[in-house]
């Protein structure tokens, strides 16, 4: 399914973990289905942010357990994240949520709500070229209505920028997917 060049094979062989190899191959298979068989992902040296070798699209990549997702756009910067809700994320939420962010009081929905915040912040981090960003200090998710899918607004605020992003999320089969573009 995947056309690999010598560099791709060398990179694939650096992974010791079999699951990591499968994730890498699934990204390439999906990309080649979405674009052309000779599409190549390369990574920026310092940030490890993926980009297409030919520069034909801006790209963001994510994978979690059984799923891989790629977001492409010809002109706009993009960010995407998918997470399998495998554990109680609330116990570590103090590491990435700020005091300004509002999480539902409904115990049955709380974990989902926190996972959406986490994925949204991951997508923002990716769209910002993985700059030196502290999730709790520089990324803010405005209050939003929790549903199985919907819109939300994310803010990136640092010394050099203050940008607002329209973001989109969906919950399905115990997964959360969030994406945005600039």
CATH architecture group name of the largest domain: Alpha-Beta Complex
Helical region count? 4
The share of residues in helices is 25-40%
Q: Between the first and last Cα atoms, what is the distance in angstroms?
A: 32 Å
Average pLDDT level: 92
CATH class of the largest domain: Alpha Beta
How many β-strands, per DSSP?
9
Q: How is the biggest beta sheet arranged?
A: 5 strands, antiparallel
The percent range for strand residues is 25-35%
CATH topology of the largest domain: Ribosomal Protein L22, Chain A
**Low-pLDDT regions:** none
Query: What letter string, H or E per element, gives the SSE order?
Result: HHEEEEEHHEEEE
Radius of gyration: 17 Å
| Molecular shape | globular
Can you tell me the number of structural domains?
Answer: 2
How does the helix and strand content classify structurally? alpha+beta
Entry summary:
By secondary structure, this protein is of the alpha+beta class. The chain contains four helices and nine strands.
Explain what this protein looks like in three dimensions.
The protein is α+β, with helices and mostly antiparallel strands and 182 residues long. The protein folds into 2 domains: 70 residues, Alpha-Beta Complex (Ribosomal Protein L22, Chain A), CATH 3.90.470.20; 102 residues, Ribosomal Protein L22, Chain A (Alpha-Beta Complex), CATH 3.90.470. 26% of the residues lie in helices and 31% in strands. It has 4 helices and 9 strands; from the N terminus they run H-H-E-E-E-E-E-H-H-E-E-E-E. Strands 5-9-8-7-6 form a 5-stranded antiparallel beta sheet. Strands 1-2 form a two-stranded antiparallel ribbon. A hairpin with a 4-residue loop joins strand 7 and strand 8. The chain starts with 5 loop residues before the first helix and ends with a strand. 29% of the residues are buried. The mean pLDDT is 92.
